[in-house]
From TrEMBL:
EC number of this enzyme: 2.7.7.7
Binding site for Mg(2+): 11, 105
Enzyme's top EC category: transferase
Name recorded for this polypeptide: DNA polymerase IV
Reported cofactor(s): Mg(2+)
Sequence segments annotated as region (Disordered): 409-434
Originating organism: Nocardioides exalbidus
PANTHER family found in the cross-reference section: DNA POLYMERASE KAPPA, DNA REPAIR POLYMERASE UMUC / TRANSFERASE FAMILY MEMBER
GN (gene name): dinB
UniProt keywords, alphabetically: Cytoplasm, DNA damage, DNA repair, DNA replication, DNA-binding, DNA-directed DNA polymerase, Magnesium, Metal-binding, Mutator protein, Nucleotidyltransferase, Transferase
Length: 434
């Protein structure tokens, strides 16, 4: 923990949904939900108008529709999100050379490297307000919430206190006063399982956690987790802002519209995913030792199994063989809705011939893999009509596409319907560098 409030955390408010409302004027001020458009879909982001109805990230689309049936459910436009994120990250890097992106919509900034005249609370507060104004300007009206404090932990906590479109600065020396009344769930890594263990021990707030010895927390939660919580409960966080975050794992997963029950089919899917993982690893110059599979059952129970190899590999066949062996330890008779393969323990070298000359895929190529249905006109997708110009898919079905013609600059526009194969209607293709 520093002696100055010199770490800033910026979080774009309801980012995906906000981009959609910016680019679709008719949706401004209305509930917008990105994701959850299919029978198996989950919510990625909900606008604040939708959150009033209890809709949140990772909620199933079915539950989100039950809570907010009048919301606009959109499939998402990642080219637009990436382009907007690039502008925001450029603004942050203009402020300081030390910027650590956490995702498209949030990042840490080291203000100690920003060349400011000083790091007094008044100075960093002014910088934070100017940054929020600049973000609003370059994004075409999006808002961001900022937290500034003496550590990454405190800065992130602070950025949750005045959402949306706010800012909180934690003066040095007041960190514990801020933390003590808070629930332990504000600490990173304290999920439902840890929360329940702490509850059983009579620990609900950070003030109560602070009274527990490190030895007791280690006994309760394990060495790494227990020691980490002991330090964070005392506002002790010395992690630097790292402009290049190390890639810790590479994974591929898929969710299926129909529960999978055929074990041979699941093995084939894992084989295909393992190949994709291997390709991505080689493309990025990585190899890895630990292979993990993720399996979500029909009842949403999520299981994972891992195996660590003696040496790193980037071979999809090797990864696939390990993944299939891990699947063999699981009971999937009730049906599987999601499968995934990942590799962690990354390195920049490969042990050749780890498994000798064993055939690459053990005959898994014979499996016919199901392809997810392709929606030619997903809701929210950008389109262009030869006469009407730019718009977005309002809905589609029975061979008909309904389009609302509007952009961020035009204001709410007219709605027209066309045949799905109308030659004058085209999906917008973003530039290749997007």
């Amino acid at each position: 923990m520093r002696t100055t409030a010199s770490i800033l955390h910026l979080d774009l408010d309801a980012f995906f949904a906000a981009v959609e409302q910016r680019d679709k004027p008719s949706l401004r001020g209305k509930p917008v939900i990105v994701g959850g458009t299919g029978g198996r879909g989950v919510v990625s982001t909900a606008s604040y108008e939708a959150r009033k109805y209890g809709v949140g990230s990772a909620m199933s689309g079915r539950e989100a529709r039950a809570r907010c049936p009048h919301a606009a459910f959109l499939s998402g436009r990642f080219h637009a999100y990436r382009a907007t994120s690039k502008e925001v990250m450029r603004v942050l890097r203009d402020l300081s050379p030390l910027v650590e992106p956490l995702s498209l919509d949030e990042a840490f900034v080291d203000l100690a490297a920003a060349g400011l005249p000083d790091l007094d609370v008044a100075t960093v507060s002014e910088v934070g307000e100017q940054l929020r104004e600049r973000v609003h300007e370059v994004t075409g009206g999006l808002t961001a919430t900022v937290g500034i404090a003496s550590s990454k932990f405190l800065a992130k906590v602070a950025s949750e206190l005045d959402k949306p479109d706010g800012m909180t600065v934690v003066p040095p020396g007041t960190e514990l006063d801020l933390l003590r009344p808070m629930n332990v769930t504000v600490i990173p890594g304290v999920g439902p399982a840890t929360t329940e263990r702490l509850r059983r021990a009579g620990i609900h707030t950070i003030a109560e956690l602070e009274l527990v010895s490190q030895e007791e927390l280690v006994r309760l939660l394990g060495q790494a987790h227990g020691a980490g919580l002991w330090h964070l409960a005392r506002a002790q966080d010395h992690r630097p802002v790292l402009p290049e975050r190390e890639t810790k794992s590479i994974s591929v997963e898929g969710t299926y519209d129909t529960d999978l029950t055929d074990r041979r089919l699941m093995e084939g899917l894992l084989t295909r995913q393992a190949r994709e993982v291997g390709t991505r690893m080689r493309k990025n110059g990585y190899s890895g030792r630990t292979v993990t599979i993720k399996v979500r059952l029909y009842d949403f129970t999520t299981l994972s199994r891992s195996s660590t190899l003696p040496s790193p590999t980037d071979d999809g066949g090797t990864i696939g063989r390990v993944a299939r062996s891990l699947l063999g330890d699981l009971d999937t008779t009730g049906g599987v809705r999601l499968l995934g393969v990942g590799v962690s323990g990354l390195a920049d070298w490969v042990q050749e011939d780890l498994f000798g000359e064993e055939p690459d895929d053990d005959g898994a190529d014979e499996v016919v893999l199901p392809e997810p249905p392709r929606r030619t006109w997903p809701p929210g997708a950008d389109v262009v009509h030869d006469e009407m110009g730019a718009g977005w898919v309002w809905g589609s079905g029975s061979g008909v596409v309904t389009v609302r013609f509007e952009t961020a600059e035009t204001g709410p526009g007219p709605v027209r319907s066309y045949k799905a194969d109308d030659p004058a209607l085209h999906r917008y293709e973003p530039p290749a560098d997007d």
